[in-house]
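Our consortium's second objective concerns turning raw sequence data into structural hypotheses that experimental partners can test. To show how far this objective has progressed, the report includes one record in full. It was chosen at random from the queue rather than selected for favorable results. The single chain below, 248 residues long, was entered without modification.
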Amino acid sequence: MLAAASKLASRVLPGRSRPHSHWQAIKSDRATAALAVGTVGIAGLVVAAQYTRLLSRRTHEEGSDRLIDSAPAAAVDTVGVAVEGYSATPNRELVLFNLLGGFLGSFAAVRLTTWAIREDWGPFRNVSVGGRHIHHFVPGILIGFGSGIAGLLLSGENADRRIARTLGVGMGLTFDEAALLLDMQDVYWSREGLFSVQLTLATAATLGITVLTLRILGRGETRQEEAGEIPAAEGQMNTVVPWPHPLS
């Protein structure tokens, strides 16, 4: 009788977490690790590959015996290429890039902050209003709503880029507590809380793939315009703006 009631309650009552088997726990950990390695590893690989290419150029110019002296200059070159590439990137790609940057930045910052609060390290403390603990998904939702309203009222490329960044911040704060919102209980540091991490990493990977896809499509569109295979974009008067040369 009690077993049947418990089983019924687990189906009906919101926020009631179901026990995880050992195999489910292993699969969850593996999925989280794979998403983390994929997200961080790809970004690190891109930076390392670009630095290696520029270091090779510096070494070829100054001589292989000056490899150590060429390393700092190659690092400066890498930063310069990134800054120049950012300024030369089409607006729709920059909007997604800023969204991704704000999303990952806020997620990483709030994870570190909550860890510091849990370990009682540093000046960080929980925020309470009237004795009620305020979870960080609350400001996240408010920032997201505010960004949406600003997007309706403001126009222009600069406004789009700034709004995308703040929207990403709001998304990061909210997604970090997605498991809490779904389970209706504080599961932040429990195994159920891994869902927030998995969802965030999957979203980051999706945004990254979208940026890359837009870049590939944009480059193909430009080359097709140059070849006369498709009409030029409206307002360009058949004058093609050269696509930034791929980093090599």
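The partners drew two points from this record. The CA atoms of residues 98 and 162 lie 8 Å apart. The first helix runs from residue 2 to 12. Both points have been shared with the crystallography group to help prioritize constructs.
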